[in-house]
């Protein structure tokens, strides 16, 4: 089966650098203001989705005319955020990898909700990541390989009450059969020291954040 990647541009912090992440075969989803960002930079979304309450009626018309498809919803009656709606579209499109851009920003509630969306992606066996100017965020329930990507730190945070059987290889501070409980910060700000690092766990869900200042 051919692999399919979806790339989501949402309404948080975006810059022209983010456009460099687009690959020729990507299925491009614009969520709310993220759709306008794409169109303003000459990129045609395969679909634009959201309530579009962050843009003007004139800008919404521009998004509708420039997108291949558009799915608009009521800002009051909808149950999902625009970013989660975008993920649902990626699921419907049978994407096996999703890269989400513009999903972090000044609204901490939206940022945390978007991080938790990684759990939903995992439930659908989708390899999903969040990327911004300073962070690359993934979720694992088994094994994850870390390669140098220009980030300084690698931090681990439990997304379940506890994560057991944690093993780290290729890092400055290794772990062997360790347990992390919610609220503990002992695995923050580790550093990759090898050409690649391996993170494996036995149970739970582990958030892996590569970051730089």
UniProtKB/TrEMBL annotation:
Key words, A-Z: ATP-binding, Kinase, Nucleotide-binding, Transferase
One GO term of the biological process aspect: thiamine diphosphate biosynthetic process
The keyword Transmembrane is annotated on this UniProt entry: no
Limits of the Thiamin pyrophosphokinase thiamin-binding domain: 141-207
An annotated Gene Ontology molecular function: kinase activity
EC code(s) of this entry: 2.7.6.2
PANTHER family linked: THIAMINE PYROPHOSPHOKINASE
Name the UniProt record assigns to this protein: Thiamine diphosphokinase
Organism field: Paenibacillus kribbensis
Source species taxonomy: Bacteria, Bacillati, Bacillota, Bacilli, Bacillales
